[in-house]
Automatic annotation (TrEMBL):
The gene is deoD. The keyword Transport does not apply. This is Purine nucleoside phosphorylase. PANTHER family: METHYLTHIOADENOSINE/PURINE NUCLEOSIDE PHOSPHORYLASE, PURINE NUCLEOSIDE PHOSPHORYLASE-RELATED. Its EC number is 2.4.2.1. The purine nucleoside phosphorylases catalyze the phosphorolytic breakdown of the N-glycosidic bond in the beta-(deoxy)ribonucleoside molecules, with the formation of the corresponding free purine bases and pentose-1-phosphate. Residues 22-268 form the Nucleoside phosphorylase domain.
Length: 270
C-alpha cells in the first residue's frame, strides 16, 4: 500500500496539489461548497494512479485543490461507497492520499436519515460519536501496522475542540445544530422499520452509508476529524413512507448552505 500511496501523491503534487492543510469530503447532494473555492488544481478520480476505478455514477468524481477561507484545502467532490462494490480499503484510500499531501484536519459531510425523532429533515447534526455497522474495518488488512497503529484508539474519534468551535459558529449564525451518534450501514437499500427501531435502541441519532470508514482511517493517521450529517429524511418506524431519493437529494441541497457556513467559518479558525 505504501508504494501506491506514494505514486498517487506524487501524481497530485506534480499537478499542483501543494501542501493542503485541510481535507474535505463532500457527501451526496452536497457539492455546492466547490463554488466557494478558488480552484488551483484538479484531478479526475479516473486519472489518479491507483484510485479505485470509477463507476458510471462516479464519472464526475474529482479531487480539487484550492483556497477556501484563506486556507489551502483539498476537496473530494464525490466519495466512494462500499455499496458500489468497493472494499473498505478502496473507500478510504483517498484519505491516506490527502494525509500524505499534508492535511492535518479532515472535515466530512454526509446525507443521513434522522433516527432521533426530535431531529427534523433539513436540519444538521454534528457527529459526536459513531457506530460502525459496515461489518468490517478499513484497518483489517495485512501490513496496516506499517501505516499506523493497528489497534487505533477510538475513544474520541471526533475532535472536541473543533466540535466546540462548530457549535459556537452555529449559534453565531443562527443555525440549528443537533449533536449525536451516526450509525453507518452498507446499504444501498434503505432500512426496514425493524432496522430503524433497532438503530434507535442501540443509540443512533442518524443513519447513513458512509463517513465511518473514512473517520476510522483518519484516526489511524492521527488527523483531527469533524463531521456533519445533513438530515434528509425522518426514519419513524411507526409512520414510514416509501423512500424518495429525489427528495433526499433535494433536502440535502436545501440544508447545504448552512453546512457550507459551518465549514467555511470553521476553516478560518484552524
Ligand atoms: N438510511 C440510510 N442512509 C440514508 C438515509 C436513511 O434513511 N437517508 C439518507 N441516507
Amino acid at each position: 500500500m505504501t508504494k501506491y500511496i506514494t505514486e498517487s501523491t506524487e501524481y497530485l503534487q506534480k499537478k499542483g496539489f501543494d501542501n493542503p492543510e485541510v481535507g474535505i469530503i463532500l457527501g451526496t447532494g452536497l457539492g455546492q461548497l466547490i463554488s466557494e473555492i478558488e480552484v488551483i488544481a484538479e484531478a479526475s478520480y479516473n486519472h489518479i494512479p491507483n484510485f479505485p476505478t470509477a463507476t458510471v455514477e462516479f464519472h464526475k468524481g474529482k479531487l480539487i485543490y484550492g483556497i477556501l477561507a484563506g486556507k489551502k484545502v483539498v476537496v473530494m467532490q464525490g466519495r466512494f461507497h462500499v455499496y458500489e462494490g468497493y472494499s473498505l480499503q478502496d473507500v478510504t484510500f483517498p484519505v491516506r492520499i490527502m494525509e500524505k499531501l499534508g492535511i492535518k484536519t479532515l472535515l466530512v459531510s454526509n446525507a443521513a436519515g434522522a433516527i432521533n425523532l426530535g431531529f427534523k429533515k433539513g436540519e444538521i447534526m454534528l457527529i459526536d460519536d459513531h457506530i460502525n455497522l459496515q461489518g468490517s474495518s478499513p484497518l483489517a488488512f495485512k501490513g496496516v501496522e506499517e501505516l499506523g497503529e493497528r489497534f487505533t484508539d477510538m475513544s474520541v474519534p471526533y475532535n472536541h475542540d473543533i466540535n466546540s468551535k462548530i457549535e459556537a459558529i452555529a449559534i453565531a449564525n443562527n443555525i440549528k445544530l443537533h449533536k449525536g451518534v451516526y450509525a453507518s450501514v452498507v446499504g444501498p437499500q434503505l432500512e426496514t422499520r425493524a432496522e430503524y427501531r433497532m438503530l434507535n435502541i442501540i443509540g443512533a441519532d442518524a443513519v447513513g452509508m458512509s463517513t465511518v470508514p473514512e473517520v476510522i482511517v483518519a484516526n489511524h493517521l492521527n488527523l483531527k476529524v469533524a463531521a456533519v450529517s445533513v438530515l434528509t429524511d425522518e426514519c419513524d418506524p411507526n409512520n414510514l413512507k416509501p423512500v424518495d431519493i429525489a427528495e433526499i437529494i433535494a433536502m440535502a441541497g436545501k440544508a447545504e448552505p448552512n453546512m457550507i457556513t459551518l465549514f467555511k467559518e470553521l476553516i478560518k479558525t484552524l
